[in-house]
């Protein structure tokens, strides 16, 4: 199939990824925009993994307040000032701050969940699944714990403006777009309610 500039533009508008990456994805997907979008998401996760060990030496603070009663701050880190001062990067920081204000996550990643919280949730869910077949209990327990903590972990939460993406997906897309490691280093949420 012929890859037209209109197809490339459509994919770029959907993803924000560079023209060359869009063209490659469309070629790989034989001109199918939906398949190309999936390929770009797959590549963004792989790209983020490759860059995971790089040092974060710059960043920007995004802020959001809602009706003067709820506010959030987020430190979105990058490798260079060049990316940290990019208006699109600053917009991403603000959007993540807005998400934090709306969704009130307790942890950035699942690694931050204290062992006591895991044990308490496990005790509750073990009682709920006591009547299930023993061969299935562990898998059911794992699913219940995952669902319970997904709502509390920032990177696992569905993004408030587009629930088809998680906050982690947004960061992976930013890594692909900016070509640098991007990470939420810290966040805080305040509420007068």
Task: Provide a descriptive summary of the structure in words.
- The protein is an alpha+beta fold and 193 residues long.
- It folds into three domains: 5-50, Orthogonal Bundle (Helicase, Ruva Protein, domain 3), CATH 1.10.8.10; 58-100 and 167-191, 2-Layer Sandwich (Tetrahydropterin Synthase, Chain A); 114-150, no CATH class.
- 53% of the residues lie in helices and 18% in strands.
- It contains eight helices and five strands.
- A three-stranded antiparallel β-sheet has the order 1-2-5. The chain has a two-stranded antiparallel ribbon with strand order 3-4.
- The radius of gyration is 20 Å and the shape is globular.
- The termini are far apart.
- The mean pLDDT is 86.
In terms of topology, how is this protein built?
Blueprint: H1 5-15, H2 19-28, H3 33-50, E1 58-66, E2 70-78, H4 81-84, H5 87-103, H6 115-128, H7 134-150, E3 158-159, E4 162-166, H8 167-178, E5 183-191
Antiparallel strand pairs: 1-2, 2-5, 3-4
Summarize the structure.
The chain has 193 residues and is of the alpha+beta class. The chain contains eight helices and five strands; from the N terminus they run αααββααααββαβ.
Spatial strand sequence of the major β-sheet: 1-2-5
The CATH architecture of the largest domain = 2-Layer Sandwich
CATH superfamily of the largest domain: Elongation factor Ts, dimerisation domain
Shape assignment:
globular
Would you list the SSEs in sequence order as H and E? HHHEEHHHHEEHE
């Amino acid at each position: 199939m012929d890859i037209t500039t209109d197809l490339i533009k459509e994919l770029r508008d959907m993803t924000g990824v560079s023209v060359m990456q869009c063209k490659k994805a469309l070629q790989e997907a034989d001109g199918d925009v939906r398949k190309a979008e999936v390929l770009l998401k797959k590549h963004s996760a792989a790209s983020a993994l490759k860059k995971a060990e790089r040092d974060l030496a710059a960043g920007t603070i995004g802020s959001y307040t809602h009706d003067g009663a709820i506010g959030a701050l987020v430190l979105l880190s990058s490798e260079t000032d060049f990316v940290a001062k990019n208006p699109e990067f600053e917009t991403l920081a603000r959007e993540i701050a807005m998400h934090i204000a709306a969704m009130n996550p307790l942890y950035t990643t699942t690694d931050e969940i204290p062992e006591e919280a895991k044990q308490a949730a496990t005790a509750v869910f073990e009682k709920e699944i006591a009547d299930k077949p023993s061969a299935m209990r562990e898998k059911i327990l794992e699913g219940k714990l995952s669902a319970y903590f997904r709502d509390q972990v920032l990177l696992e939460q569905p993004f408030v403006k587009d629930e088809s993406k998680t906050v982690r997906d947004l960061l992976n897309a930013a890594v692909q777009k900016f070509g640098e490691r991007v990470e939420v280093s810290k966040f805080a949420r305040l509420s007068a309610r």
